[in-house]
Amino acid sequence: MALDERIALTLYDRIYQAISGSDPAAGLPSAFDSATTAFVMAQRGMVLKAADYHNPWSPGNTEGSKEAAGNIASLVDDIPGPGPVYAPIGGKVSDVYRKIVKGVQDLEPPRPDLEAQREELKKVLEVEGKDEMNNLTLKPTALAVAEQKAADNYTIAYTGYVGTFLKMQADPAFKPMWPMLGAQALREPKRAFADWAAAGRDQVESVKAQLAVLNTGQVARAFADAQFRLNAFETVVGAEQDTFLRTSMTPSDWASADASTWPSYHFNESTYASEFTTEANAWGGGANVQAGLWSFGADVTHADSRQAMSQDTTNIGVSFKWRVCPVSRKWMDASLFKLPHWSLGSLGGPGMISGGLMPLIPIALVIVRDVEVIANWSHQDSEKLTEATSGSASVGWGPFAVSGHYSHSSTSDRFSAKASDEGFNVADIQVLGFVCLRVPPCPPM
After folding, report:
1. Is residue 216 a contact partner of residue 209, using CB atoms and an 8 Å limit?
2. How confident is residue 238, by pLDDT bands cut at 50, 70 and 90?
3. Residues near 355 by beta carbon (within 8 Å), at least 6 away in sequence
């Protein structure tokens, strides 16, 4: 296998394993269940202009920017295709969900004997209230807020810990030190897991499980509640009175936060893997990385051309800081997808949603920053490096964007890597991929 391909597949696998894997000795659950989630990685990272996402508006931050809130909602609204390569299929999560909730048909009527039980359980998680415009809305209870915050903190802490575990295991110089260093690194995810329990993890899980059972006999009521929730979280923005469904990410300052505490990866030729997961090989084939790490033209979903690194380029090192940012859509009730006895009529037959319209839903971003690539560059690759750092073209190196236009931005601003004595670095935030929920087979009828 060529070095170009080894580098690219190593990068995919390291992130994939940090998201879905675990340290067997830690005794803690994975942050994401690979049976219900998938990791899709872009062929080339989406570089973001941090100012577009700074200080988003929310009911608790009414002085914030609605434009920034709308940008965040848009960033995670594209529906990825079912493969491991990030390839939006053209639809929006918000649009498809609206069609489901507002177009649902053939519902069984509520059962009075279950309705009272269900209403009591709902009060544990949310209550009706008024928004800043005095409109009826749904507000999570203090318990629900605390539990969700603790769950997100655990996701961030444990993925960071597993990333460190994998980094140490891959480096012969550090692997023998892991028993000592690992015990110290494990303190943060253990504390986060304990905090999650103290915040009501078991109680919330029990309530959600009971509601899921009751909803199978209250399908019409569950969809009616979903319609109310959808309307409650719709937000108007801009002079054109456009609307979006308010979506948030953890941590709230993800776009501007100090990255000094982010986990980091450092790769060199001794730590590039030679064996890869099925998912990594599938991603590499779809992203065409066997043709080379350099990519020119086009955008995050494809390249106009790819070129391999010169064999005379040696001592290639890659480093970056990374983190996982959970996504929250309070307007969505994903448990609806599993309910029986509903259809969409002419909008779609059985399995149409999961099988085509919306196979995946992004539930977390994997972002990187401070990407640095160093090497002893050949003359051939030095010329490509000059082109990449000039800012005049759209260039990628492996899954990283090196120069081009900012993604998901209303401006035409460009970014470009900065040349260094040994290579280049890109300080901007890049979305490398998404953790996605696999939508279960639906509709059932």
Report:
1. no
2. low
3. 441
Q: Which residues contact 299 (CB under 8 A, 6 or more apart)?
A: 44, 394, 404, 407
Amino acid code (one letter) for 137 = T
Nearest one of 23, 54, 18, 20 to 178, comparing CA atoms: 23
Q: How far is CA 179 from CA 310, 351, 393, 403, 425, in A?
A: 39, 48, 47, 41, 33
Residue 192 contacts residue 157 (beta carbons within 8 Å): yes
Structure tokens at 120: 């009591």
Write out the two tokens for 391: 């800012």
| Whether the Cβ atoms of residue 396 and residue 288 lie closer than 8 Å to each other | no
Which H or E run includes 366? Answer: strand 360-376
Q: What integer is the mean pLDDT of 339-346?
A: 89
Nearest-CA neighbor of 306 among 318, 315, 296, 316? 296
Tell the residue number behind the tokens 């890659």, with chain if given. Answer: 318
Question: pTM of this prediction?
Answer: 0.93
Reduced DSSP (H G I as helix, E B as strand, rest coil) percent helix, strand, coil of the chain, to 5: 40, 25, 35
pLDDT tops 70 at residue 383: yes
Specify whether the CB–CB gap between 295 and 341 falls below 8 A: no
What pLDDT does residue 131 have?
Answer: 65
Q: How far apart (Å, rounded) are the C-alpha atoms in residues 330 and 145? A: 11
